[in-house]
User: Fold this.
Amino acid sequence: MSNIIMPMPYKILNVTKMTEIEYLFRVEYPNVENINFGQFMQLSLPKVGECPISITDFNKEEGWIEFLIRKVGIVTDEIFNLCCGDIMPMRGPYGKGFDHVDFKDKHLVIATGGSGLAPIRSLVNHVYRNPQEVKSMELLFGFKNEASILFKDEVLKWRENHPMILTVDKGCGIDGECVGLVTEYVPLLKMTKANFDEVVVVIVGPPNMMKYTAIEFEKLGVPTENIWVSFERKMSCAVGKCGHCRIDETYVCLEGPVFNYSQAKYLLD
Ligand SMILES: Cc1cc2nc3c(=O)[nH]c(=O)nc-3n(C[C@H](O)[C@H](O)[C@H](O)COP(=O)(O)OP(=O)(O)OC[C@H]3O[C@@H](n4cnc5c(N)ncnc54)[C@H](O)[C@@H]3O)c2cc1C
Ligand code: FES
Assistant:
């Protein structure tokens, strides 16, 4: 029987600088069929430590998964020293992802703040390639400034087929037309004209962004049960044993990171 907490070695295929502090790592991974949108892996560097990182995208045919990693501390600093051809030890995949979000034949609205785009990117790419699965997909992305816009090429590609609002907190965005917080743009979305029972909203970003964006959707009349969020929380074991990720009685590593907002609203401080 395989050991679910034993890291295994995988080869890094590519490293791409996305912003000053965020790099995209493509890693060879033969078992892509086990992965669901929004799940994460524990990257485990010997003698350094471990950290949970979302699988930002995956490709079954070519056998790889990707991580968008922000350099913030002990483990991620060390990962940034790794290059193409090096080994990335990791374990997983873990967590409940977006696979239990019933978006089929719905108006799917995705709102993200900053690197919150990373955990949802595989789902956006999936719907982009399979638009017949939804009634529509609408995208609302917020970034600090133009330099921090992630996956710019893909963002521009998605925008050709799906309505999108791309806003920056200050300065100029890709076109310079939208400045301000994601919350301000919720009432301007096209989905406001849809039947809200057919709308599914996914929000990913910093805790306050998720909380106040969800409130804006609720104010419009979107049922709370149709809103989903994804959490980032300090973790250790990632398999429900250590309690590091616990909020009250909820184990984020097992029951999340993706939660329905009717549950998550009591977990977000
Ligand atoms: C489900 C999930 C998915 C995630 N997905 C991603 C992802 O896709 N990409 C990504 O980049 N990150 C992701 N994260 C976040 C990532 O796991 C954390 O940033 C992780 O802590 C990085 O580990 P580290 O050892 O590099 O940083 P750490 O050394 O743990 O530092 C992390 C932060 O804590 C601060 N800190 C460290 N020690 C202390 C201290 N003693 N007192 C106060 N502050 C301290 C640091 O300054 C830094 O801001 C995810 C987290 C979860 C739970
Ligand atoms: S990280 Fe150990 S219980 Fe969730």
About this structure: The mean pLDDT is 94.
